[in-house]
Amino acid sequence: MVKICCIGAGYVGGPTMAVIALKCPSIEVAVVDISAPRIAAWNSDQLPIYEPGIDEIVKQCRGKNLFFSTAVEKHVSEADIIFVSVNTPTKTQGLGAGKAADLTYWESAARMIADVSKSNKIVVEKSTVPVKTAEAIEKILTHNSKGIKYQILSNPEFLAEGTAIEDLFSPDRVLIGGRETPDGQKATQALKEVYAHWVPEDRIIITNLWSAELSKLAANAFLAQRISSVNAMSALCEATGANISEVAHAVGKDTRIGPKFLNASVGFGGSCFQKDILNLVYICECNGLTEVANYWKQVIKVNDYQKNRFVNRVVSSMFNTVSGKKIAILGFAFKKDTGDTRETPAIDVCKGLLGDKAQLSIYDLQVTEDQIRRELSMKKFDWDHPIHLQLMSPAAVKEVSVVWDAYEATNGAHGICILTEWDEFKTLDYKKIFDNMQKPAFLFDGRNVVDVEKLREIGFIVYSIGKPLDAWLKDMPAMA
């Protein structure tokens, strides 16, 4: 029986291994992590991540050919194929701080694999890593090999949160990068055979190691670039009276461009986009490609500009101050159908409003109060380090209350900010909400989910990203 072990039981490792176990009943899959609470959650009825469809798969396979364990060394030593899905956070200090990926967790995983292995292994990079990481891992393993042979493969994930299970069941492509040697090709074939249980052969792409590593960074950079492009246009639409939804629809009809990722919003979030672009920028700079680095930096700059622009719109519309005013925040996750808050635009918007002394009442369908408070008290990039290394400073968020109902969040509020496109926010009783708010009642739609005209008829002053401005807002400056 082929044995697979995945180091790291997070958003990538958990769902990916669950689907492999489901689709390959003849393979034994172990997911290991040093975090006992996380493993306990995977073994319970309350899984540590929210992702549509994952509960059923885990319950079907757990205890049969899918195991979650803290016995890291035991499962690593027994495995034929080891997936490494550990964090690669952005460095916060030292060489490349603020841009380069910190490979501390990766290196310690590689050293541990070398320590405990008694048989030949295929080691698969599953986390997003900078180009040439495989080479570094290879060096660590071969210099500590004790006669054991290792083959390193790059198999980046292309999952979108909220549709991860769908993406795993029916991927656009599975990318496997390996060495172009006989042993490398053999290892590539072994991993290809795992995916071939359910993925059509023409969707499994084989490349060299560096192409696979770079393809992941490039894919995320291209997607983020589309969002920044449409968001840059949204600012111009507001200035000219154009409507970004109409512009995006017209642009997306061009088959060379296509309609996906053309929704204007308060900005992109998630664990990958910003981190991967910063990583790309750093690699470009290290290779002397300053102009290329500057090009990709601009994608992040426009994203930051969009979040600042939103906050300034809120403050300037409400008589240039939100001090002491209750602002309802609807949605904290970085997108709908996930409980993930990593790099969510809501963090910067909330911090911007708190900076002007607003009183925030936050409601999200999937995000816990602890998570919201932790995000608002953390420094940038700290989110990607283990929780026990994250400092809490609760004093920083005393102006925040977290509630479990949209109507409670908006009751008595001066303004509402919609920051996640949860479907629920399209169907709320906005007349009831309006009646219970301070007047004038403001609604700032950061996701373009509401019917602007209907809300204006009710009496709201509405700001919707990239849409023609409410008469009230026309004389207000877009940027303070």
From TrEMBL:
Gene3D superfamilies: Cytochrome c1, transmembrane anchor, C-terminal, NAD(P)-binding Rossmann-like Domain. Pfam families: UDPG_MGDP_dh, UDPG_MGDP_dh_C, UDPG_MGDP_dh_N. It is an enzyme of class 1 (oxidoreductase). Pathway: Nucleotide-sugar biosynthesis; UDP-alpha-D-glucuronate biosynthesis; UDP-alpha-D-glucuronate from UDP-alpha-D-glucose: step 1/1. Residues 328-452 form the UDP-glucose/GDP-mannose dehydrogenase C-terminal domain. One of its GO terms (molecular function) is NAD binding. Its EC number is 1.1.1.22. One of its GO terms (biological process) is glycosaminoglycan biosynthetic process. The active site is at residue 272. NAD(+) binds at residues 8-13, 33, 38, 86-90, 127-128, 161, 272-275, 342. The keyword Oxidoreductase applies. Keywords: NAD, Oxidoreductase. GO terms for cellular component: nucleus. InterPro entries: 6-PGluconate_DH-like_C_sf (IPR008927), NAD(P)-bd_dom_sf (IPR036291), UDP-Glc/GDP-Man (IPR017476), UDP-Glc/GDP-Man_DH_C (IPR014027), UDP-Glc/GDP-Man_DH_C_sf (IPR036220), UDP-Glc/GDP-Man_DH_dimer (IPR014026), UDP-Glc/GDP-Man_DH_N (IPR001732), UDPglc_DH_euk (IPR028356). It catalyses: UDP-alpha-D-glucose + 2 NAD(+) + H2O = UDP-alpha-D-glucuronate + 2 NADH + 3 H(+). Belongs to the UDP-glucose/GDP-mannose dehydrogenase family. PANTHER family: UDP-GLUCOSE 6-DEHYDROGENASE, UDP-GLUCOSE DEHYDROGENASE/UDP-MANNAC DEHYDROGENASE. This is UDP-glucose 6-dehydrogenase.
